[in-house]
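In response to the reviewer comment on reproducibility (Comment 2.3), we provide here a single inverse folding case reported in full, input and output, so that an independent group could reproduce the run without further information from us. The structure tokens appear first.
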């Protein structure tokens, strides 16, 4: 069976419960750069703390958010239904069920009309999901058991075929993976990581989701998921979710594929003898390395075939923003190639980097999210692209608010890249940008700036490999990780191979 790769974010929030931005904004922004999404309502917390001396603020804003979600639920369902067009974009309504003991879960269904239903514990919420032929997915699993991390003792594969492993909260793969958890909910605990779940013999997939609270599903760099499905419909996506043909990525749409004896990720396959392994990775920037992992250890690293630019095919990154945190900057920009063509345009748009309601954040950044679409491509030809955007300065030195585009181009190194932005013109040959980014300040030091490049040969963005391997255990677990030099990652769901 051959499947198509689709990209989505099943976990984001807006003011429908608590957060900010409208649900209409969220769906419109998601459809710019994703194939599917879910805007999730915060709905229930059966074991919420009751000590108001310590947790009064938490109790109040959650209860207010839950009440708002209940009042707005029909609107949430309606906007998801009206925002769906099979083959073009699919929106799943969903709601979040919190728990200290069991960890937080989100309920999804293949149906356009999802009822909002509470439950006192995890077994009961699983029955709620089963009743609508749906799934209940744990997220930010890496927090300690009893502190809203996953409770592997209570985990069941049938209703939770995958877990959200990466989001704005960080990465829950292991206790030493990139992207540690820095939220005030605490650090990672190995007993709640994906590696521990696989070690215990559970079969589940991994995905990324933003957990974004500012109406921006798929906010670049905050978490996305890839899914291999037959077609872009609610039912086909749900079927792929249940089959675990999913994987996690940070933001760049890294097309990463692993096959063992032609089995897809998420499969369990019988292979008592030699295993034929196929690896294919197509990144959006230079690949640092691709790692094949068997039973929790790296058995081989793969690197791109660098050094050849004969194909005249490149990835070119454009990034803009910076400047003052409290000052909005409106951008109108166009890029033109003097020769050659722009083959693919991938947007790297993001929203404000917050995982809590809009409170003290107001004083830190100018609000760039007032518009329905704060960033948009306005025109495109074979050799040019025009866009508009609105930005403010980076929240901190570790919280980017920059925006970007990644272009796949066919052009010789002699081609000139012409960028016109806010009345300024900049010119660079493609050769000048190869492996190099060139920065330009629009109004001098400490003002907004734009970076043109680097350009990277497509050969540096690709890994293709074939190899064989032998059985080691009764069940061997194979999975793949891909890392780009720009810090973007993809982590694939395993393939379980029985000897």
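Designed residues, in position order:
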């Amino acid at each position: 069976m051959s499947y198509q790769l689709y990209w989505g974010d099943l976990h984001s929030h807006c003011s429908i419960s608590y957060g900010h931005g409208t649900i209409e904004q969220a769906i419109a922004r998601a459809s710019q750069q994703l194939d599917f999404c879910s805007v999730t309502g915060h709905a229930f917390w059966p074991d919420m703390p009751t000590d108001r001396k310590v947790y009064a603020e938490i109790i109040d804003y959650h209860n207010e958010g839950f009440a708002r979600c209940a009042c707005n639920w029909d609107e949430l369902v309606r906007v998801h239904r009206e925002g769906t067009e099979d083959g073009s974009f699919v929106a799943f309504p969903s709601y979040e069920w919190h728990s200290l003991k069991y960890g937080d879960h989100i309920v999804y269904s293949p149906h356009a009309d999802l009822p909002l239903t509470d439950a006192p514990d995890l077994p009961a919420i699983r029955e709620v999901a089963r009743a609508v032929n749906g799934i209940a997915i744990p997220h930010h699993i890496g927090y300690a058991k009893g502190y809203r991390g996953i409770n592997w003792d209570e985990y069941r594969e049938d209703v939770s075929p995958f877990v959200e492993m990466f989001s704005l909260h960080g990465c829950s793969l292991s206790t030493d993976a990139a992207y540690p958890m820095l939220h005030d909910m605490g650090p990672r605990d190995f007993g709640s990581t994906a590696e521990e779940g696989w070690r215990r013999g559970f079969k589940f997939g991994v995905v990324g989701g933003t957990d974004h609270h500012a109406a921006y599903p798929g906010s670049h760099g905050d978490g996305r998921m890839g899914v291999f499905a037959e077609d872009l419909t609610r039912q086909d996506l749900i079927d792929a979710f249940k089959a675990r043909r999913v994987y996690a990525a940070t933001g760049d749409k890294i097309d990463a594929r692993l096959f063992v004896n032609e089995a897809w990720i998420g499969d369990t396959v019988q292979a008592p003898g030699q295993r034929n392994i196929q690896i294919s990775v197509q990144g959006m920037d230079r690949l640092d390395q691709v790692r094949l992992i068997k039973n929790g250890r790296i058995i081989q690293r793969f690197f791109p075939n660098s050094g050849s630019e004969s194909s005249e095919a490149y990835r070119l990154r454009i990034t803009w923003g910076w400047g003052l945190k409290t000052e909005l900057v409106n951008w109108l920009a166009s890029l033109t190639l003097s020769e050659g063509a722009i083959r693919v345009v991938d947007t790297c748009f993001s929203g404000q980097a917050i995982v809590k309601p809009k409170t003290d954040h107001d004083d830190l950044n100018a609000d760039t999210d007032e518009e329905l679409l704060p960033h948009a491509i306005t025109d495109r030809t074979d050799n040019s692209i025009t866009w508009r955007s609105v930005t403010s300065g980076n929240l901190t030195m570790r919280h980017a608010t920059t925006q970007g585009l990644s272009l796949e181009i066919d052009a010789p190194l002699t081609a000139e890249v012409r960028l016109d932005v806010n009345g300024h013109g900049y010119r660079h040959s493609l050769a000048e940008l190869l492996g190099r980014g060139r920065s330009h300040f629009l109004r001098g030091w400490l003002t907004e700036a734009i970076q043109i490049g680097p350009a990277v040969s497509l050969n540096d963005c690709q890994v293709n490999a074939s190899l064989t391997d032998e059985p080691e255990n009764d069940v061997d677990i194979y999975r793949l990780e891909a890392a780009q030099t720009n810090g973007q990652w993809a982590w694939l769901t395993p393939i379980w191979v029985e000897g």
